[in-house]
Each structure stands twice: as C-alpha cells, then as structure tokens.
Records
---
Amino acid sequence: SQTIHQWPATLVQPVGSPLSLECTVEGTSNPNLYWYRQAAGRGLQLLFYSVGIGQISSEVPQNLSASRPQDRQFILSSKKLLLSDSGFYLCACPPPTGGYTFGSGTRLTVV
Amino acid sequence: SQQGEEDPQALSIQEGENATMNCSYKTSINNLQWYRQNSGRGLVHLILIRSNEREKHSGRLRVTLDTSKKSSSLLITASRAADTASYFCATPLAGYNKLIFGAGTRLAVHP
C-alpha cells in the first residue's frame, strides 16, 4: 500500500519569506500527485496536480508554484509568502483502485 | 469550482444516534467517495461507491447514491464520540485527473 510523507507538520513564516513544502510517496511508481489547500473549517481546494516528472498543472492563479523533480517527490513553493497563503496543505495520491491517500498535512501560518 | 456540496454544514448528536450527511454534485461521475478528517489531520478514505451502484455498506457506514438526483448520503449508525470529525464527499471530475471536494459536514457526537 502507498504512504505519503509530508513535512514539516507545522510552519510559521513571516510575510515575504520563501516556502518549500515537500511530499514524498512510497509504495507506488509514476503516481499522479496533488496539492490541496484547506482554509480553517472549509473544504479542500485543488492547487496543483502532476501526472509525471516535470509535469505540473495549476488549478488556480496564486502566489504558489509546484515542481516534480522526481517520480515520487512533489514540492510546493513560494518565493514570497502572503498572509493569504496561510492554511493547511495536503498532498494526495490516488491508488490504482479506491480512494485517495493523503499525507498528514502541513499547517502554514504566515505572520 | 466545487463539485460536491455537503448538507448539513454541521451536525450535533448524542452517542448511539444515527448521523446522516448528504452530498449533491453537479456533473456526471464515475464514482463518489467519502472521506473523514479528524481536526488538524489528513483525510482518510472511508468508502467509494461507483455510478452503477445504489448502496454500499462498510461496518457502521452506509452510503447511497442516486445518480438521477445527483446526490449521495452517508449514514453512520450507532454513533460514538470517536466519530466526531469532518466528513467530505468527493468526485473525480470526468475526463480529468482531479478529485473535487465539497465543503464538508462537521459532526460532533456527544457522550
């Protein structure tokens, strides 16, 4: 079965600072990978998805970017964080059948 | 854009009671999935129902799907305090590698 690792679990960053969140997947190869953001008490908004190395699709215009440098690695980045970037960031991966597997998430607070 | 919308937004019940959550969606689907999220954690897949299925059971969970009404319901029977969580429905957007989530139902089960 596949497992998703996300780190860090929590992060407090000042406005204008850079960001790098990492997601790695075990137990599968050539997975589709997804970054979601969840505002407090809200549903999940799809930010990026990737079907392979170097292939990134952006869902919403924003201050963030994503990269897929390796098959099982998906990175969410920003050059300069905004207050509105605060939220709970989740990485996800669909298995061959059944529901998606999610990482444990990173809670980002921009101050 | 949101594909699924849950109803109610919040639900408060006593232990032992049943909890019913509803989900409506907008476009054709291949399947519909329900997830659970404990506060501050990642999402856990509960159950997937395919478009040609009308009802599915898993332990104390019962999911129904009515494709003519574009709706689904999740029933948790004999609820426990440990069932307290947010519950989300999600549908893969047809033809795309995307899982779209509703805003969720926050369930509180009181002992």
---
Amino acid sequence: DGGITQSPKYLFRKEGQNVTLSCEQNLNHDAMYWYRQDPGQGLRLIYYSQIVNDFQKGDIAEGYSVSREKKESFPLTVTSAQKNPTAFYLCASSRVPTGGSTDTQYFGPGTRLTVL
Amino acid sequence: QKEVEQNSGPLSVPEGAIASLNCTYSDRGSQSFFWYRQYSGKSPELIMFIYSNGDKEDGRFTAQLNKASQYVSLLIRDSQPSDSATYLCAVKRGSTLGRLYFGRGTQLTVWP
C-alpha cells in the first residue's frame, strides 16, 4: 500500500527536550511538507522540501529543524527553543507537476505532541 | 488581510439539505484551489481541486471558482451526518510546485 506514515502517533515531551517526529512516504513524491495545527486553527507551514538535500523555511520555522537525506524521509525535530510546541503535527507530500498532473498534497495521519 | 479566509462556522444543516462552504483569497495570482475534509482528531483528506473558473462536480460535491471575485466555494448536496467535519480551503500560487495557504476551516454539522 502506498502512503505516508508518521510516528509516533502521540508524543510527550518534557520542557527542555528535543524530540524528532518521523515522516516516511512510499509514493515516490519529490516534495514533502511539515505543518502545525493548533485547536480551531488552520494549518501553518513549518518547513518544506522539493528535492533531496534541500529545504525551505515556512511561516513558523523558528524552534524547528529538518533534514532531507532521502527522498522517502523528512524528519522534523522540535527543539527546546520552540516555546509552545504542543500541537498536532502533519506531514504531507506531493509530486512535481508534469503535463496535466497536479501537485496535490496528501497528508499522513499526524503526530500529536504534548509538552508536560 | 489573511491569505485565505473562511467562515469558521459552525454551519449546521439538516440531513438531505445542501451545505454551502465559502472561501475567499487575497492573491490574484493564485491558480490552484483545494478542498480538504478533516474529521476531529484526524488528518485532512482531499475532496476536490479546481483550477478553472466555473463549476466542477464529483458525486455529491461541487466546487465553484470565480477568479474575478477571488472566491471559491464547495457545495455538498444531500448532506449526510457522515459529512460532519471541518472543511479546509487551500490555495496555491502559481502553476509550479509550491506551498499551500490554508484557511482556518469551516466546521459543518449535519443533523439527522
């Protein structure tokens, strides 16, 4: 089955700790994205990557870091510098549009992070 | 002005009615428009996308785009209780790969 997996589903972090959220896709998509969602809010872009070994900051990159060493993987690290990290984190991926295809983004199931 | 605006709702309709969800966007250069459905506690799932002015129908769903008015809507005909969810409007600028801008979503409740 093709799809996007995120792990863990739930994550608890103590203040001052760094944590890494996993995102893997087997859709052969070139582009991958990380979003944050707070209750009653839309999705806010943290980082995105269009190609291996390259990524760009989104609107709320402060306190987060990413890497893109493999096409299939785009892990997100929430560092201790992120002051309010409790949120629902969503990973997405898309193709690069060619011809009549779209670059629709498809989402993984999400990771819910809670800071204790 | 926010990039993408939606009425937050909640919108409540009876089963079998038409639900109308609206979205406006600020960038006239926007070219691709997406509607996602998100059930409580779950991730968004794509319902429809639309690129051209006019209507696009897929089953009970119709997306309507008016680029002159910078307005996109989603109509759900014969609404079912299973349609109760938050509906997110997303907009992409340009015709090449790029980021999506999301609205806050409209919460829809369909009551039996």
